[in-house]
Amino acid sequence: MAGVACATVAAVALALIATPWWWVPAGVLLALTAVGAWDLLQRRHSVLRNYPVLGHLRFLMEALRPELQQYFIERNYDGRPFDRDVRSLVYQRAKGTDAEEPFGTERDVYADGYEFLVPSMAPKPVPDKAPTVRVGGPDCTRPYDMALLNVSAMSFGSLSANAILALNNGAARGGFAHDTGEGGLSEYHLRHGGDLIWEIGTGYFGCRTQGGRFDEKEFAAKAAHEQVRCVSLKLSQGAKPGIGGVLPGGKVNAEIARVREVPQGRTVISPPYHEVFSTPRELVRFVARMRELAGGKPTGFKLCLTSRRQFLAVCKAMLDEDVTPDFIVVDGAEGGTGAAPLEFADHLGTPLTEGLTTVHSALVGTGLRERIRIGASGKVATGADIVKRLIQGADYTNAARAMMFAVGCIQAQRCHTNACPVGVATQDPRRARALDVTEKSERVHRFQAATVHGAMQIMASMGITDPADLRPHMLRRRVDVTTVLSGTELYDLLEPGQLLAEPPRGWADDWAAADPDEFTV
After folding, report:
1. Does the first or last residue of the chain, that is N or C, have fewer Cβ atoms within 10 Å of its Cβ?
2. How far apart are the first and last CA of the chain?
3. How much is the mean pLDDT over the chain?
4. Where are the beta strands (DSSP E) in 378-442?
5. C-alpha 97: how far from its chain's center?
6. pLDDT digits (tens, 9 = 90+) for 155-192
7. What is the pTM of this model?
8. Rounded distance, CA 177 to CA 407, Å?
9. CA-to-CA distance for 516 and 521, rounded, in angstroms?
10. Are 309 and 510 in contact (CB under 8 A)?
11. Of the listed ranges 31-45, 201-215, 272-286, the one predicted with least confidence
């Protein structure tokens, strides 16, 4: 921009003192200077604030053929395409320009794997108010009413301060929850008053001793904050199960170091495992201890499902100890991140459908389901996604990638470089300033409200006004060109208490081998 301005001044000077022909390039340069000045002053597009004039090439690319747009722009963090139509829908809803498309689906409805929801011949009116889910089991003294769609875990450090501010302000405006991610509890999470789910990972950032172990006193002091409505123990993440998080040293400035309680400028690598427990029984006891330290607030854990046998071992530990988490968040392998080895992103972890249905069915089969709420995260971006996950066993959903789109992410895949062009995933103050908090927080609010409303519209068309009335047979999947199965036929579902009475053949071996005192492979 500075170069264009200097060239403009030079061209005008030459036009005045040399030859009038210089007014032609001077006019072009004056126009570019005016465009650049407007780009710097406007608050709607972060990419134009960071890249005045040149940033318009991005919008030109989006106007070209969909194949080019798909290849150059709309790729997710692990290299796999994120549905172009879904990303466009998120942008439209965030901007408040959501509209019907009159040309029908572009999907092949006869392709294997095509899923659809079953409408009713007697649809219902859409409720005026979206329902919430009461989270809090028998040992919880301060339950929380969770929205159907919330901000999933994204840490300060991975995201900029302005991105965190926009997400939390949007959550405060819309009355939904904001998961802090494992990077600690910062002032940016607290400034706007949005409800928080404080996530604790293997690094215990924000509540750790000098040696990196869990600090009960510091945890209790921060968990007592009024905005912290729930606390969550992160066991694993969908995009990189089995390894800890990584924050490059270039992002660890003085502020990040203070929030995470780590050395400044050094790459932060979280351990792959927790030091406070090593068995299912110890895990359950630690969750109970966290709830006690948090003053009775809802306490749970997040995981990308491992083997069914290991999760059943946790269920046995819950039964033996008579202790249950208030919620379990199931993260699917399709979940995104800015820092995951390609082999993990492509080949490790249980997809959300299988993980969600397994966790739900295991809790039903052990008679624990009524005590525990289930959250689902992993490429949740539309109302249809919400309804599908509720059918598969979730009580509510969380979104990360879609919320990043709402604050302006363009999937430039520069998260790990500290050079995010729109100020979302960077700690560079110059780049981060391009993200206008007021504008983007309203986009987060609009996106969440419109998406939940979309889910309610879909349910109403299915003859449902209460999500609790959704049933597996309402979701269908084509498994070959002539065969369509319902969720009842697709998923290995259990009846209440069935594992305790007479485990079915498909579950019997895993149930027998599950050991509450060992994470058996």
Report:
1. C
2. 58
3. 86
4. 396-399
5. 23
6. 998 899 999 999 999 999 999 999 999 999 999 999 99
7. 0.86
8. 16
9. 13
10. yes
11. 31-45
Cα dihedral 87, 197, 328, 175 sign: negative
**CA distances for 358 relative to 364, 366, 395, 508, angstroms:** 10, 12, 14, 14
Q: Kindly report each contact of residues 172-177 with a partner whose C-beta sits within 8 Å and lies 24 or more positions away, as own/partner.
A: 173/441, 173/442, 173/445, 174/147, 174/444, 174/445, 174/448, 174/449, 175/147, 176/147, 176/149, 176/150, 176/151, 176/448, 177/144, 177/146, 177/147, 177/150, 177/151, 177/229, 177/230
Task: Choose between 385 and 32: higher pLDDT.
Answer: 385
Domains recognised in the chain with CATH numbers: 2-73 (no CATH), 133-513 (3.20.20.70)
Parallel, antiparallel or unpaired: strands 149-151 and 396-399 = parallel
Let me know how long the chain is.
Answer: 521
pLDDT tens figures, 280-313: 999 999 999 999 999 999 999 999 999 999 999 9
- Identify whether the C-beta of residue 205 lies closer than 8 Å to the C-beta of residue 180: no
The dihedral region occupied by 198, where left means phi > 0, alpha psi between -120 and 50, and beta the remainder, is beta
- Rg (C-alpha) for the chain, rounded Å, is 25
Rounded CA-CA distance 71/435 in Å is 25
Cα distance between residue 419 and residue 157, in whole Å: 13
Question: Best-predicted range by mean pLDDT among 7-11, 187-191, 331-335?
Answer: 187-191
Identify the residue with better confidence: 144 or 108. Answer: 144
Residue with tokens 């201890």: 289
DSSP code string of 452-495 = HHHHHHHHHHTT-SSGGG--GGGEEEEEETTEEEEHHHHS----
Smallest CA-to-CA distance from 116 within 455, 477, 469 is with 477
Query: Read out DSSP for 166-203?
Result: HHHHHHHHHT--EE--TT---HHHHTT---EEEEE-TT
